[in-house]
Amino acid sequence: MNKTVIATIERHSYIPGYGTFGELTICGTNIKLATVERAWENNQPNISCIPEGIYICKKRMSPKFGFTFEVTHVPDRTHILFHIGNGPDNFQGCIGLGMRLGYMSGLLAVLNSKEAIEQFKDAISPQEEFALQIRQVEGARICAA
């Protein structure tokens, strides 16, 4: 894979059985967005976040979410999209973006997701595809639910 990494997700918090939280940055911009994914469940489709690694994201038109990007070449997985949502339960193996982390109904979530997705798409949309690196931050917090 010879694509230059344009975006990076650094996962910094993990709540077993609930979710994985981090920060997405886009190279060459000041954009920093909060991320939310499902908890790690051995990369099982629809219920797990995806493994650390470098992936190619491709522009897609989703019937449910409209124009977005799909994370491709994830082993044994397909249809992993960036889309609007707040908590891990809003996703089936996809990645949610927010302007910041906060709480909804007493649970950790990303906030202002629609605004974050628009900011992400505006920054990335000139690209038909881009490389995304996902990595765990050393010393990431494992939190209680």
Task: Describe the protein in words.
It is a single chain. The protein has 145 residues and is mainly β. It has one helix and ten strands, in the order βββββββββαβ. It has one domain (5-142). Strands 1-2-3-7-6-5-4-10 form an eight-stranded mixed beta barrel. Strands 8-9 form a two-stranded antiparallel ribbon. β1 and β2 form a beta hairpin. The radius of gyration is 14 Å and the shape is globular.
Series of H and E elements: EEEEEEEEEHE
- Tell me the number of structural domains: 1
Number of strand segments = 10
Distance between the termini: 37 Å
How would a crystallographer describe the biggest sheet?
A: 8 strands, mixed, barrel
Strand residue content: over 45%
Rounded Rg: 14 Å
Sum up the overall morphology in one term.
Answer: globular
Mean pLDDT: 91
Strand order of the largest sheet: 1-2-3-7-6-5-4-10
User: Helix- and strand-based class?
Assistant: mainly beta
Helix content: under 10%
Query: Number of helical runs?
Result: 1
Kindly report the oligomeric state of this protein: single chain
Give the low-pLDDT segments.
none
List the helices and strands and how they pair.
Layout (H helix, E strand, L loop, with lengths): L4 E11 L3 E8 L5 E7 L14 E10 L3 E7 L7 E4 L11 E4 L1 E5 L2 E5 L1 H12 L4 E14 L3
Parallel strand pairs: 1-10, 6-7
Antiparallel strand pairs: 1-2, 2-3, 3-7, 4-5, 4-10, 5-6, 8-9
